[in-house]
Amino acid sequence: MRKGLFKRGPGSRKSVNAAVVVMSVAVGTTAAAPLAPGQTASDVALEWYDTTADTVNAAGIPASAQVTKNRMWAISWLAAARAVRPELGAGQSREYEQAALASAVHAALSDLVPSRKAELDAALDRSLERIPDGPAEDRGVRVGREQAHLVLAGRENDGLDPASVNMPYQPPQPAPGVWQPTPPAYGAAIQAGARYAKPFLLDDPAQFRLGPPPELGSERYRIDLAEVRALGVAGSSVRTEEQTRTAKFWEQSTQVAYTGVLRAALEQSRQPLFKRAAMVAIFNVALVDTQIATSDSKYTYTRWRPVTAIRAADDGDGDPNTTPDPNWTPEATTPLHPDYPSGHNTYAGAAEAVLTALTGVRPAEPVTIGSSTAPGEFRTYAKWSELTAEVVDARVWSGLHTRTADEAGALLGREVAEHDVRMASQLLR
Questions:
Q1: In the CATH hierarchy, which fold is given to the domain comprising 21-159+191-428?
Q2: pLDDT tens for residues 219-253?
Q3: Coil, strand, or helix at residue 330?
């Protein structure tokens, strides 16, 4: 566990370049090239990626349990990667690989979302209809199902169901700096139980716990709160139109946004099927572990949200003339959990680290995504780090987080993800 804000303990973090070296053997990097063997016009990986997205979206998982959605992705695609890994697929035809991937994802999702069995069965039928009947198809179906059942058994009772993630939480007694339910709903805290869940690759949820946030009254605290007070207020007169649009764009769920980002990386990849399936699996494994680690840091420090601090007029400067602003309202509605670190930014930092390790610092072609909270707007990114930088700013301009909480979140996400990339071979064998 690390001590002190932004400090790293010995050996707690290696560079992204080190992660690239380690994972190049297991996963490889993305580059524009002709289609790899087994990657046809009917791309089984993209086909089942889209089926997974449709299934997860239809599962009825509440927004407060976003990590449960990443768990579904991680389980189904970890099964797929194992089913087509070289040890099992050596000497097998592309027909085997396609049947194995489709059957693995199908079997896992059918268990996780039984209400979608009819749709999943139909999707599997479509995939298998393109594969000639014979031993390769039969073995692929069998191995895919076996791997799905093994992964599911290994994740049973892991504490990532919505009820466990959102277990009841009794907030601390009100005090300066301490999180309390926020307006307008003043609802119960969410995601407090994720810190007790079983990680995929972390030794412990607290393995990369952040150091404490800035002390109340410190220079950094005053700067942070002054920035969000001016730029994050609803209808701010100093926030530019572009800043407002950016804030609105990133009100959306990061899980939803990065589903599109990862799909673009998968579509651009010209790597063999195993490496492409492994990319999807590792991405979601890292995002599960990141959200567990996020809950650990959030509920260790229980730092109050900007709306609570500003309405209490605690700018931390000791100025007796500081005027409370009991009507201060952020541009966006504050989520019901502590400020430090920002969950949007732990997600962004982790996604950036995985994609950088497995594809390089930039996609083969710029990636364009939309937003459920800014209909009709699309943004294009030429580097993975550009998304993170934008999310850091957006959550300040939304009035939801201090910049310290955003930057610390991105750091935490990167550290967890880089660790998981280094350790991923443990899950892929």
A1: Vanadium-containing Chloroperoxidase; domain 2 (1.10.606)
A2: 999 999 999 999 999 999 999 999 999 999 999 99
A3: strand
